[in-house]
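Re: weekly structure request thread

Next one in the queue (265 aa):
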Amino acid sequence: MRSTLTFLRVALTERSAVVRRWFLKVFVFLWLPMSLPVAAQSPNTQFWGEYMLNYPFANSFNLENAFVYSTLANTPRWRAIEYTPTLEYSLTQHIDLTLGCTLSYTAQTEDYNTFEIRPVLGTRVNFTPNQRLQARVYLRLEQRNFLNLDTDAWERVMRPRARAEFLFPINHKDIHDDKLWYGIADVELLFTTDDVEERFANRFRARFGAGYRLSYTSRFEFLYMIQQSRSGINEDYQTSDNIFRFRYKHYLRKKKPTQSSGTGN
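Done, posted below.
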């Protein structure tokens, strides 16, 4: 195991330029679904407010507690409240392992409300951990357990997720400097292995935004996210959303800082 990780670290270091070019190709490939026609008459608008409390411990661990409130500006309006604790373990500078669980309540319509329990297992591969441009891939597998609060019926479905991420400093060279402006860009595919009665079961997302690291303790991010959704994996995209996300990241234990930037939902 140790020899395998050593080989991977050396290969990524020596071929960072090749990795960056490959990563850009993956980014463009995942962007292609945005060019597909959308059957929705007009895009919806959503607003998300997010608070993320991070607690690092034992050198390689970080516990992120994410609280999210989201709502639709259009009608018929839905509202959702989520809490997601995620434990992140830095196996090496190139590989992180994550384990989490989302608890979510959603008022879908006037007569249809759901409660969701979503265990999540994931891994992040950091291709350029010590360079100015942070390029990485985040892979996750979710088990989505829905409870219809009106009928008391449970539905279960597995949903893989794959996201290509970029993070880059703007006014400093190091992404870990204070008083730092930084850019964020990523694309993600989310798809179920079966159809469920849920508004956003299968999605494509593209996010662009900026963040400001005031200090190790406080970081602020604003993201604009384009989201296309469909009910079934073989159907055309049926809705398009413009999502505005306002996020505050709060880090504790400054004397034992973590390099983790969190999961980013």
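The helical segments are 2-14, 16-31. The CA atoms of residues 151 and 174 lie 53 Å apart.
Next request, please.
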